[in-house]
Amino acid sequence: MYSFLLLAIPAATLCYCFSHSEYRFRNFLIPVLTGMMAGILAACIKEFFIFSVYIPKGSVPGNMLHLFKPTFFPCLALCGLLTFFSKDDRQYKATALFPLISSFYAVYLPYTVISGPESRSFFLLFISPVLTLCTALSVQTAVFLIGRKVLSCGWKSSLPYIALFPAATAVQPAIHALWHCKTGGILPFILAFFFAAAALAFHKGVSEKISFQPQP
Q1: CA distance 108 to 151
Q2: Fewest Cβ atoms closer than 10 Å to its Cβ: which of 55, 113, 136, 172?
Q3: Do 4 and 129 touch, CB atoms closer than 8 A?
Q4: 20: burial class by Cβ within 10 Å (0-12, 13-18, 19+)?
Q5: What average pLDDT does the chain have?
Q6: CA–CA separation, 28 vs 14, rounded Å?
Q7: Percent of the chain with pLDDT over 90
């Protein structure tokens, strides 16, 4: 029952790492292990220090705001960790961001689903891992765009672009909130499909066009 939930994100992370032939797989070991350790730490904090179980209620915006926090803040923290503590070049940092974030959720997402009150839900077991992967791709795409704008125009001119980061982390909570509130019937599934298609398309287009490698 939990096979897809447990294996989808690790499998996608491995495929991503092996697809980047400019790096060896061992180059991604530190981001992967760091993400997994951060996921274990977050799960332990939630298990032993945050005793309440979230039960969705109220409006879609209220639920979205609650679900936005565990999406936005881990992604922001992991981006900051990679940006300020890694001494690697910009291209590697941008490339390693996806396995860093996905490895975090490879641990944290199964914990939150299995320990939650709706652990047998089709949406949480099958759609949620896909949405999580798409969020990781969207965050990486946003970082590519923000980074390129900052390097070319400076921070002041890049401030509007920074809004891409919270926007990239807001789609998944919005779809989850619609599903939790039983709003729109199959609308959350339709939106999940379009989000996945858009995330893949934009990531492919942006990652192919933008490079942080020094120009000869």
Answers
A1: 33
A2: 55
A3: yes
A4: middle
A5: 89
A6: 10
A7: 60
